[in-house]
Write a structure and sequence with these properties.
It is built from no helices and 25 strands. It has strands spanning 6-7, 14-16, 41-44, 48-53, 58-63, 75-77, 101-108, 112-118, 123-127, 140-142, 167-172, 177-181, 186-190, 203-205, 229-235, 238-243, 248-252, 265-267, 292-298, 301-306, 311-316, 328-330, 354-360, 363-368, 373-380. The strands form 6 sheets. Strands 1, 2, 23, 24 and 25 form a 5-stranded antiparallel β-sheet that branches. A 4-stranded antiparallel β-sheet has the order 3-4-5-6, with no helix packed on it. A 4-stranded antiparallel β-sheet has the order 7-8-9-10, with no helix packed on it. A hairpin with a 2-residue loop joins strand 15 (229-235) and strand 16 (238-243).
Length: 381
């Protein structure tokens, strides 16, 4: 790890869903109140830790107080019991069912609520208050006309201002709601929290029209185009989008105000027109990315889940510039190293396809999907 950051601990503070040091012999992931299968979302609040247990199609909730490796989930949403699994609980979609849940974020405004990207139901579920009991129904749905529909783009061949296709990430900056509508290669923006089901968004990033879903807006890679956007974060007036398919992070210095607004700089590539993973190298460097799926701001860094490189990298928020080097590294011994669990059996500090990260105070949370676990790290700058 280069100068500028350090980990307070050599291992995570807490590991949930899977073992800190897994057994060498793998076994089937049986759903329970302590197991996860390919988790792709995690959120820590003052009172709760929520996990999008993606492979089991459910949301698990653990009490924050006393959180440890041995913690047992207090409640779940999406299944009839902890030992059940299946898309939409093996039934039709509803206000409390899930089908490949991925992104998750806190909604802090008049009340403290929750938003979950229910990716294969092609919708966002919103709870006006944090759920605290089994199968608490969501209050509002975006992307579908009601809680009982789940077709991509509402059954149409092209999207509009309301529809979604594989919405992977969701983010709230205190005023605007953002959805990484990955299958439509765009980010949808509501200028305030939606008040009704299926409310249309106000503008888009990545496309110039509501009815277009072409990769890179049907043109060459540019400062406005996207290919599989997944993660979103903000810091002050700056907005960040993890454009996984173009192997880069798009940085907007001010809140976008127009359809298809261009970003101001990119990280992971040396120009707006480059898009190759690891900049056409086999091995990564401090300046490259390979399918970054998630972003978070923590301890003065813009953190990125550099998913296909099985690492977390961080960039000093006070020195952001085009094509910059990362100065924070987690999961690999050096910036030129890659490999799922460093090409070895999983260890407490190794990563295998981390799909999501989030932060709470000085804590960095990692959905270590390939290891079927979530880890919580203490970070200081």
């Amino acid at each position: 790890m280069k100068s500028g950051a350090k980990l307070l601990l050599k291992e995570p503070v807490v590991v949930l869903g899977g073992l800190r040091v897994p057994d060498l012999i793998s076994s089937p992931i049986v759903p329970s109140s302590t197991t996860c299968f390919g988790p792709r979302g995690v959120l820590l609040t003052r009172d709760w830790l929520y996990i999008c247990d993606t492979g089991h199609h459910r949301l698990l909730a653990f009490r924050h107080e006393g959180l440890s490796d041995k913690s047992i989930a207090t409640f779940q949403i999406g299944q009839s019991d902890f030992d059940r699994e299946g898309r939409n609980g093996k039934g039709p979609p509803s206000a409390h069912s899930l089908n490949v849940p991925t992104g998750i974020c806190l909604l802090e405004q008049d009340t403290i609520g929750l938003a979950v990207a229910d990716a294969w139901n092609h919708r966002i579920l919103i709870w006006h208050k944090l759920p605290q009991a089994d199968n608490t129904p969501a209050d509002l749905v975006l992307g579908q006309i009601d809680f009982f529909q789940n077709e991509a783009n509402q059954g149409r061949s092209v999207p509009d201002a309301t529809s979604m296709h594989w919405p992977y990430g969701v983010h709230f900056d205190g005023r605007c709601l953002y959805v990484a509508d990955a299958g439509n290669r765009r980010v949808m923006i509501w200028k305030s929290l939606p008040k009704k089901n299926n409310q249309p968004c106000d503008l888009l990033l990545g496309q110039r029209r509501f009815d277009c879903r072409d990769e890179n807006a049907g043109r060459d890679v540019s400062a406005m185009s996207m290919r599989w956007p997944h993660g979103i974060a903000h810091y002050g007036d700056r907005l960040f989008v993890a454009d996984a398919g173009n192997n880069r992070i798009m940085v907007y210095n001010d809140e976008p105000q127009s359809m298809g607004a261009a970003c101001d700089l990119v990280i992971g590539q040396m120009s707006f027109t480059d898009c190759d993973h690891n900049q056409r190298r086999y091995a990564p460097t401090a300046a490259t990315l390979n399918m970054p799926y998630s972003l978070a701001v923590c301890a003065g860094f813009l953190m990125a889940a550099d998913t296909a490189n099985s690492r977390i990298v961080g960039y000093d928020l006070d020195q952001l510039e085009m094509g910059m080097d990362a100065s924070f590294l987690l999961g690999q011994p050096g910036f030129e190293d890659k490999g799922d669990n460093r090409w070895k059996p999983a260890q407490a500090d190794s990563l295998c396809w981390p799909y999501h990260i989030s932060s709470y105070a000085d804590k960095l949370l990692v959905a270590d999907s390939g290891n079927n676990r979530v880890s919580v790290w203490s970070v200081d700058k």
